[in-house]
Amino acid sequence: MTDYQRTYQDWKSDPESFWAKAAGCLDWHTPFDRAREGNRWFPGGRLNTCYNALDRHVLHGRAEQTALIYDSPLDRKQEKFSYVQLLERVARLAGKLRELGVEKGDRVLIYMPMVPETLMAMLACARLGAIHSVVFGGFASQELAARIRDARPRLILTASCGLEPRRVVEYQPLLERALESSIPVMVLERAQCGWHFREGQHPWSDSEPVEAVPVRATDPLYILYTSGTTGIPKGIVRDHGGHAVALQWSMENVYNVRPGEVFWAASDMGWAVGHSYIVYGALLHGCTTLLHEGKPVGTPDAGEFWRVIEEHEVVTLFTAPTAFRAIKKEDPDGSYLKERNLARFRALFLAGERLDPDTYQWARQLLQVPVVDHWWQTETGWPVAATCLGLGEAPTVPGSPGKAVPGYEVEILDEQGRPLPAGQEGAVALKLPLPPGNSPTLWNQDQKYREVYLDPFPGYYNTGDGGYLAEDGHLFIMGRLDDVIIVAGHNLSTGSLEEALAGHPAVAECAVFAVKDDFKGQLPVGMVVLKAGCTDTPELHQQLIQRVRDGVGAIANFKEVLVVQRLPKTRSGKILRAALRKLADGVDFPTPPTIEDASVIDELRELLSYRRR
After folding, report:
1. Dist. CA 458–CA 432, nearest whole Å
2. pLDDT (tens digit per residue) in 107-130
3. By the 8 A CB rule, do 118 and 269 touch?
4. Please, which residues have CB within 8 angstroms of residue 534's CB and are 6 or more apart in sequence?
């Protein structure tokens, strides 16, 4: 048996003992009574996540090791903080939060850019036992207001602005439009933009340091809102104990990173990846975490990632496939990489959007290190399926995020909740109980949690994704179930159609979405972004259509491809296919609040207007 097979069997034969052993790596103020009770892990135990991420390492010999590297090509600034320096800053910030009235169990909303103080604010809340809710900087006022109403924070932490490649985003007007009541605000002023202080608003400062407050393992650490486009947003709750155990375990066994090494999660702090692997996972494991305020292209060029990896001796990078598609579009030959020495770099992990085999192969050939597609969700908080490099596995199947990680049992179900055989596509579900680290509920919405995740398939957690399992256990995620295109009664996944398009050598990235059709119900339309130097020609359109006919079949009725400069995406890199569908069908809708650049909607509305004439 391989290490992965042996570990998976160890978990499956006795899940409680498996996770109790994993929990022994942390410092507990009070030992837990038992490993699990229902869907709650380590009941009776008390600990503090901030203590385990900082104090523990200072006490055990890592005081002078670099804990945090901040690299901002937008601000032209770099900073490094050792574990003891970061602990001092966090403890003093926690003291200031306490001065402003924050206590254990209170909520603190953090509306900030990618700066060190954002990470410090999260850890300071955890130190007090307060519950933080990070909303990424620049989020629309309406959606920010909905999160403030739901979380009811005691305090809001913000900054005067965020930085984008071509603009400065002022936060004060956005925040003040969202505030419906008098909530104290503490503001970090940046050099690029000031803040007009009003009553109840305080400049960023610290106070006397405070010690970490022990909390129950089952107490909430944070709330992270998702899919909140209408009505009450979904507040994903993460607890202290299970979260810390799962993340520390994953750093070694999934990502194969050792304490003291530099780990870079190129994401936003407002997303689950930022929480799990910029802040908590890396620091709990004693790594050096890298916080980057920039983009894979445009700050200044498509060689930015290679510069950061070389300068800071990064061993593992975790980012979204869209980042590599952007690099591939601007620099298809990888010329910028030839200027760099990535001797310490040994693995690339990609998640957040389906990784097409063409991008996988391009990255693999360019970097000559393992390229690991893996799959998880905001709700799970850490990987469900992956190639566990720390357990001796190696990536083998392009297009698959790997096999189930120990802790998860993945099954494919039909509409009645019956398991399907290997190779047959259906709903991807996770057998209960879920392992530590998964969200046990939604904030103030226990019933909604059951309705969305547990009721559709009794005995399972409903992921909302469609896919299939191969005979050898490799999982294939074909897209959200609501992204399925139904052509004349035949269900087609966007993933299979996009895979066919993405394999063309001229295509940098693509999206396929459904449009209404009076005869067949729906038809698929493709949008492609071409690589630098490639030209849009009638011959190219025919080649792309033929690729889909060859790869998926004539049943797809794929006849239309549009070449565009860019696709509508969220800040985490997910393509907004539902928005494309509505644009094509002429449906009026509000601009999605998570979109990276709202101007692309107007561009595509004009492009697709021909379908409504």
Report:
1. 9
2. 999 999 999 999 999 999 999 999
3. yes
4. 506, 540
Long-range Cβ contacts of 371-375 (<8 Å, 24+ apart): 371/347, 371/395, 372/347, 372/348, 372/402, 373/321, 373/398, 373/399, 373/400, 373/401, 373/402, 374/254, 374/349, 374/350, 374/401, 374/402, 375/351, 375/401, 375/402, 375/475, 375/477
Residue 115 near residue 134, CB atoms below 8 Å? no
Say how far apart CA 411 and CA 525 lie, in whole Å.
30
To which H or E segment does residue 525 belong? strand 521-530
CA distance 225 to 148: 11
- Exposure string for 480-491, b = 16+ CB within 10 A, e = fewer: bbebbbebeeee
Spacing of C-alpha 146 from chain mean position = 21
Of the candidates 445, 455, 449, 480, the one whose C-alpha atom is nearest the C-alpha of residue 465 is: 480
Measured CA to CA, the distance from residue 54 to residue 90 in angstroms comes to 9
| Distance (Å, whole) CA 118 – CA 509 | 32
Cα–Cα dist 12/480, whole Å: 28
Regarding predicted confidence, which is higher, 352 or 232?
Answer: 352
**What is the distance between the alpha carbons of residues 110 and 108, in angstroms, rounded to a whole number?**
6
Rounded Cα distance, 419 and 74, in Å: 50
Closest CA to 420 of 407, 405, 410, 434: 410
Measured between alpha carbons, how far is 112 from 161 in angstroms, rounded to an integer? 8
User: Residue 5 has what pLDDT?
Assistant: 97
Both tokens of residue 60?
């055990």
Contact 243, 143 (CB under 8 A): no
What residues does 529 pair with on adjacent strands?
A: 509
What are the tens digits of pLDDT across the range 146-185? 899 999 999 999 999 999 998 999 999 999 999 988 899 9
Q: For tokens 């800071």, what's the residue?
A: 312
Q: Let me know if domain 484-612 sits in CATH 3.40.50.620.
A: no
3-state secondary structure of 89: helix
CB atoms within 10 A of CB 432: 15
Side-chain half-sphere exposure of 133, counting CA atoms within 13 A: 29
What was the pLDDT predicted at 422?
A: 97
Instruction: Decide: pTM greater than 0.70.
Output: yes
Domain regions of the chain by residue span: 403-481, 484-612
Mean of pLDDT over the chain: 93
Domain 403-481 has CATH 3.90.190.10: no
CA distance 500 to 511: 11
Q: CA dist 572 to 265, 274, 364, 384, 425, Å? A: 12, 10, 22, 18, 26
Q: How many CA atoms lie within 13 A of 587 on its CB side?
A: 12
Burial class (CB in 10 A: 0-12, 13-18, 19+), 198: exposed
CA distance 493 to 486: 9
Q: Residue 247 and residue 538: Cα distance in Å, rounded?
A: 50
Spatial strand order of the sheet with 66-72 comes to 77-82, 66-72, 288-292, 262-265, 314-319, 347-350, 371-373
CA angle 301, 306, 311 (to 5 degrees): 115
Is the distance from CB of 72 to CB of 292 less than 8 angstroms? yes
DSSP classification of residue 421:
P
